Sequence to fold (235 residues):
Amino acid sequence: MTHAAHHPDDEAVDRFAAELKAKLADARAKGRGGWEDKAQVSAQDLSDMLLAHVFKGDPRDVANFAMFLHQRGEGITLADGPRMEHAVEVFQIAEQRCAEHHAGAGRLIEPGIAVQAGLIAAAPFLIGTPFDFHAHLVRQAKFSRNTFGPGRRTQGVSDHIRKELAEIAEAPDDLEEWIDVVILALDGAWRTGASPEQIIATLKAKQAKNEARTWPDWRTADPNKAIEHSKETAP
Fold:
């Protein structure tokens, strides 16, 4: 009995599926997951993350988020009518200005560069709802408390941060590794007993404090060492 040869499309899908499984396994090893829990992750959340990965450029991540939505029986949720119209307008303006800027400087560029400029400008308007940092902190604290337990866990969180910093050293261009450190820092912040309002207020105040400090010229600093503010004039 002979079997019909696999169509190239089927073979490509099989190869791609293996890549997707490997990517998901890697994510699980880093403690990521939960896409199937609609109480914790909404269709809008998954749509926003899918869109974010479009701009990061890895088709495997985009495909996995599309798979999550498909398996949950949901579609991709983008902006409503007015926001979409604004996104189109911003895209066209940015695309035109990018092309005009390079033309004015006597440079010929690939059309895709101007398109990319338009997409980057329009991205914030394509997401269905603005990011709510306060709601995110509430959600993160709930997840972390249920998953890792209550209490300060200072040593455990610090140990995890050190491990993530080692991973950043190995892959400094991996955005997710940097975000892991951000998430862990926020985890440590709420575990001090601070409320989401206090965390946000402290973040804003600290940024303003840093902006008011005197810093050395970065051009003369060692790029492999921390650049510290002047202790004499520090507010």
